[in-house]
Amino acid sequence: MTIAATLLAFLPVAIALVLVPGVNNLVVLRETVAHGRPGGYAAIAGTSIGILAWSAAVAAGLGALAVEHPREFTWLQMAGATLLVTTGVRAGSRLLRRPDGVAAQADTKCRPGVRPSGSAPTRASFRAAAMTSIANPRCPVTAVSVLPQFVAPGSAAAGTTLALGALWTVVAGAWNVLGVLLAHRSRGLLSRPRPRRVVEGVSAGALIALGISVAVGAGA
Q1: Domain range spanning residue 57?
Q2: What total number of domains does the chain contain?
């Protein structure tokens, strides 16, 4: 089977994967609400780095290593869980420390149609999304369990796996771009203090819950 045929066979699976909401989508939404489209696009770039990194790891033989060295893979899961919980706790603590008045003042500087000054917010959005995507267990689990199923024996396994990961990244990115555009259109509502705090709170809670879930599953 050619790479083109393999990618065509994988495309419906990639679409199904990205249509299921996950933590990556929440992070993109949060950064869009906080920093507008630049923040959302930077977050998409960050989540893409995570998907590509795990796809490259599988292409380099991560799946085989996970089978041969399950204890090391468990430690890797625990590290990801710790990062998720830490990120969620930090986001939640910032939310608790910031009064609504401060959020409202920040929102007046980031209204729809007004570009945020400087590139620091977009860099922060990129870093937050990249760290979340790399720590998100959905990425390695999908990469390890799904991508190899589309690699035919005797083919250029590494190149095919990377191509599958690139397609997955493109489909996820396109879906998130649509989410950014929709969120930006609703940003006048979402960037108000109370809805914004809800978005940030749900995102922080999801990160903590997912991290705890991964830690419990890895320790079982």
Answers
A1: 3-219
A2: 1
Q: Report, in angstroms and rounded to the nearest whole number, the Rg of the chain calculated over CA atoms.
A: 19
Q: Please state, in angstroms and as integers, the Cα–Cα distance from residue 141 to each residue in 55, 95, 107, following that order.
A: 10, 31, 37
Q: What angle do CA 183, 189, 191 make, to 5 degrees?
A: 75
Q: Write out the two tokens for 97.
A: 């420390």
Which residue reads 């990129």 in tokens? 126
What does pTM read for this prediction?
0.73
For every residue of the chain, DSSP letters joined together read --HHHHHHHHHHHHHHHHHS--HHHHHHHHHHHHHHHHHHHHHHHHHHHHHHHHHHHHHTTHHHHHHH-HHHHHHHHHHHHHHHHHHHHHHHHHHHHS-HHHHHHHHHTS-TT-PPSSSHHHHHHHHHHHHHHHH-THHHHHHHHTGGGGS-TTS-HHHHHHHHHHHHHHHHHHHHHHHHHHHHHTHHHHTSHHHHHHHHHHHHHHHHHHHHHHHHHHH-
How far CA 151 is from CA of 31, 55, 101, 204, in Å, comes to 35, 13, 54, 36
CB 129 within 8 A of CB 46: yes
pLDDT tens track for 76-95: 667 767 766 776 787 677 66
